[in-house]
Amino acid sequence: MAFPYEWQIGVRYLRAGRRSGRNSFISFMSLVSIAGVGLGVAALIVVLSIMNGFQRDVGARMVAVLSHIELYDARGVLPDWQATVRDAQRNPAVQGGAPFVELPGMLLQEDIMKPALLRGILPQDEAKVAEFMRGKNADALAALTPGAFQIVLGSELAKALNVKKGDNVVLAMPSQDSSVANVMPQTRRFTVAGTFEIGHFEFDSGMAFIHLQDAEQILHVNYPTGLRLRIADANQAPQVARELKNSLNGDYIVRDWTQRNANWFAAVQSQKHMMFIILTLIVAVAAFNVVAMLVMSVTDKRADIAILRTLGASPPSIMKIFVVQGLLSGLLGVLAGTIGGVLIAWNLPSIANGIEQLFGIHILDKNIYFITSVPSQLLWSDVGGVVGVAVALSFLSTLYPSWWATRTNPAEALRYE
Fold it and tell me: Do residue 237 and residue 316 come from a single domain?
């Protein structure tokens, strides 16, 4: 037959007949090795998908409120920010720009005090660069009026301060008058004009917006201190930032959103790599089941090996038989694990919601993970890497038992047969 006999015998050994208890146990061991590899592969695919989804969702929420690119003048203010926006838009990737002023301070309401970062904006221009300014968020920010000293709070910040629309809060921040010997914080009362919600706990609990003119008045400046730029593809922000740095006339400091969160992204990537290594060890442990199964199979098939040798089978052919048997076990496990892992990764948010409702628990604490739902993003490159590693480990686990089979002495094996 065209199909090599080594493959035929290897497949037959994998199926392991029911002639004796030993053969039945070897068949059980085959199932255990397949299941072990499958579970390891599925776990690796699911965990990597969760890490990808976490990075995607948190990154998207960051981009929704942070600038794709921030631009500062070395002098501290931007007197003609409109001209700077026009210069920046000569780069085809830049879609719009908006001025801003940032004020770190403390917000007080009666005996409650919370730190917050206030951003002074022009609502009509901010809508050009901020993705979160849609729906209710846009309506709340559009209500900001210059000179009225109104403030729009993050939803979690408003809850922490126990305030609602129409209530008053007090901003306390370091005095801008450096000539005062006994520096006392300056305060300003604001009226809550509404709240916004981004879905990222860090921003919802620690950020607020006021009108640009009010922020300039508090800082005693006449111009914005920075410029936020929006580009077509946020992933191209580092490249576009370098291009703007080289093309703009003036002494500008240009920073993209990945630099502002570089430590966070580096930590996520590091965790993903470590999880890949740790879960690969699980697949490696499962591959030891293949080794155990093959050792038992070689011991049980010593007479068969001896007969094949006397019929002219070469040691490499004997080795190939058991490599086929072990590798097929690994491949079946990899196939089952890949299918299971992909299906779970695709439906993980629904599965997680069902578990939360069934047991009345909340899997992700927004105070720690920034998001409240379990994310998942399946990348076929990750699937390919997992499959490649699992197949390689399965193949390596077959080598020693298969080589050991070639050491069988036909005369010794047939003596008591």
Answer: no
